[in-house]
Write a structure and sequence with these properties.
Layout: H1 6-16, H2 20-28, H3 51-63, H4 68-80, E1 85-88, H5 92-99, H6 107-129, H7 140-165, H8 183-190, H9 197-212, H10 227-240, H11 246-257, E2 281-285, E3 309-312, H12 314-322, H13 326-332, E4 333-336, E5 352-355, E6 369-373, H14 374-387, H15 391-404, H16 415-429, H17 436-442, H18 446-451, H19 476-481
Antiparallel strand pairs: 1-3, 2-6, 4-5
Helix pairs in contact: 3-6, 3-7, 6-7, 7-9, 9-10, 10-11, 11-14, 14-15, 14-16, 15-16
Length: 491
């Protein structure tokens, strides 16, 4: 890489930097995306020179699923922001998320933006440089697989970015070479503007469609990207972006369902740690319980050593009880006596609830996380069928899920009732798996549901939110260093 000369720094000052502080920002900036793919460069500029180097780079992209976002914040954002859990513990940033009082300096908001763009920054060099590798051990087919796997991960991350923040910067190339001549092209990469949501979704779909052409078919390798995972994410994307495309949702759900997956016979088998990477799992992150591959996040949700995060809500427990859903309730929630340890306004010490789906909470833990599984996709297909007018077909899928947990068939007989039945089924089936908040948002039900969530005495808990609270604020630290970014309304 060419070294930056004093002349180049001076050029930056004269041409692009408006103050000393801005110069410092530029020089100190650690781009969230590193390296720009440049055509026609010589051999010394090729980023990866061997098959092992590019495979190692891809492993680094997968390794991002073991960072703090996916081990902890993924569940805080999807569950504590919903009516399924309270923030718990004693973290002010989590309290803000739980209570819809987030501000632009919230620590979780800042770090989650950084984590997600860090993952994109690791995926981009793989996507943009794998084809230049000349090592004969890296076949053309494997190059295509690698690019497809990295594109899925980039799309997966952008899917959460766009759901959390709305319009977000699209960064698809990386900055590797800096010179006075390339500054006009590089500066927008270092300081990008927000792209409209529609453009972000277009890129997500493009990445996924391209990944679908090359990633492996196998339904047995759960911790790697396969066609099942890509089809599942495409179904979720088409069910989330506006306007929803229910025909596409059904198409991609059908592709998953016909891909060799099957429900486990018993619901609790998903969580007893005796059936990891099961026939029901589509995308599962594996941990070995070592210092380099240990899931410390599981210890944040259960245990008596200190007050934990994501405490099950009274509203969710009441929903389980109304349905007489003992199997899923007992698999999802465990009650313990915490007398003398801590107090909580929402629960008595003698019967205090914890998440029960992540049961190996020693640290570092070998506890796996299942991010996508078949029951989720079956219920998403039910939603698509219902929206397309096939209430009977939707009921058959809902009943398939209910039969496993020994519940009677749904009584919903029209489209409106079936919408609510599917919403309820997704809540009870997928509790604490990070889906609830995003389900409520995409169905337009977040404000109504949260406003009516009940507390310990059966009366409204008191959540107050409006349309502005459905998106997070852009982190203030990002606004400070990038004048092209704008803040979301209401912040």
């Amino acid at each position: 890489m060419k070294k930056i000369s004093y002349y180049f720094i001076a050029s930056i000052v004269l041409i692009s930097i408006q103050s000393c502080n801005k110069l410092n920002d530029f020089l100190d900036l650690k781009p969230v995306s590193q390296g720009i793919a440049i055509e026609g460069t010589d051999a010394d500029s090729i980023l990866y020179k061997s098959a092992s180097e590019v495979e190692s780079a891809l492993a680094g992209v997968y390794g991002e699923f073991r960072n703090e976002y996916f081990e902890l914040d993924y569940f805080v954002n999807g569950d504590a922001q919903s009516d399924d859990t309270y923030a718990g513990a004693d973290n002010p940033a989590n309290f803000q998320i739980d209570d819809y009082n987030i501000d632009a300096i919230n620590a979780n908001v800042n770090r989650d933006w950084a984590y997600l763009y860090s993952t994109i920054g690791k995926a981009n060099p793989v996507i943009n440089n794998v084809d230049q590798v000349t090592d004969p051990e890296l076949t053309s087919a494997r190059k295509a697989e690698i690019k497809g796997e990295a594109k899925f991960i980039r799309a997966y991350v952008y899917f959460y970015l766009v759901q959390l923040w709305g319009d977000v910067p699209l960064q698809l190339v990386e900055v590797a070479t800096i010179s006075a001549e390339t500054l006009p092209a590089i500066y927008p990469l270092l300081y990008p503007a927000r792209s409209p949501m529609v453009n972000v979704y277009e890129q997500i779909i493009k990445d996924l469609e391209e990944a679908l052409l090359s990633v492996p078919v196998s339904s047995f390798n759960k911790n790697m990207v396969t066609k099942g995972a890509v089809n599942a994410l495409l179904a979720k994307v088409y069910a989330t972006q506006e306007p929803h495309d229910w025909t596409k949702v059904q198409q991609y759900c059908d592709a998953v369902i016909s891909g060799g997956y099957s429900l486990l016979p018993e619901y609790d088998q998903l969580w007893n740690n005796e059936h990891e990477n099961s026939s029901e799992a589509i995308f599962e992150i594996n941990y070995e319980g070592t210092s380099s591959s240990g899931n410390w996040g599981a210890s944040m949700f259960a245990g008596l050593d200190w007050k934990k995060f994501n405490i099950p809500s009274n509203d969710l427990v009441a929903a389980f009880d109304r349905e007489n859903d003992l199997i899923r309730k007992n698999s999802s929630i465990v009650f313990s006596d915490v007398s003398g340890s801590w107090s909580d306004n929402n629960w008595p010490q003698e019967e205090y609830p914890f998440l029960n789906k992540y049961r190996n909470y020693t640290s570092p833990s070998p506890q796996n996380y299942i991010f996508i599984r078949l029951a989720d996709i079956l219920l998403l297909k039910a939603e698509a069928l219902n929206e397309l007018g096939d209430v009977t077909g939707a009921a058959e899928l809902v009943n398939q899920i209910r039969t496993r947990v020994q519940l009677a068939n749904t009584t919903a007989a029209n489209q409106a009732d079936m919408r609510l039945a599917i919403e309820k089924e997704r809540r009870l089936e997928l509790a604490f798996e990070g889906h609830r908040w995003f389900d409520l948002k995409r169905t337009g039900r977040a404000i109504a549901v949260m406003t009516n969530a009940i507390g310990s005495d059966g009366s409204p808990f008191g959540y107050v939110l409006d349309d502005n609270k459905l998106l997070w604020p852009i982190p203030q630290a990002e606004l400070d260093k990038n004048t092209k970014l704008t803040q979301n309304p209401g912040y």
